[in-house]
Write a structure and sequence with these properties.
alpha+beta; Ribosomal Protein S8, Chain: A, domain 1; globular; 29% helix; single chain
Length: 90
């Protein structure tokens, strides 16, 4: 199976980044929000993302993931790690 094409997009919120994944992650119009590693434990994608240092929360809907980072984290460092995590779990 081909690896997911994961693209990073900046958002108006400097601490939130949108990652499109090119396939449906969540059916329907309601998304899934994970604000802690414990909350993400039942979802392999969210659990892998929450394990990355600097990730504060994960929101998944349709074909994208929004990651909110800690203030101290930089997208230059975090975005490539999130992209790798998504490719590994999708």
């Amino acid at each position: 199976m081909a690896k997911a094409k994961v693209k990073f997009h900046e958002t108006p919120n400097p601490n939130a980044g949108k990652f499109t994944v090119g396939r449906t992650l969540v059916e329907g119009r309601s998304g899934l929000t994970f604000g802690s590693a414990a909350a993400a434990a039942g979802d392999p994608v969210a659990a892998r993302l929450m394990a990355e240092p600097g990730v504060r929360s994960v929101f998944m809907v349709a074909d994208f993931v929004t990651v909110t980072k800690d203030d101290a984290a930089s997208w230059a460092d975090l975005a490539p790690r999130v992209q790798t995590a998504l490719r590994e779990t999708l």
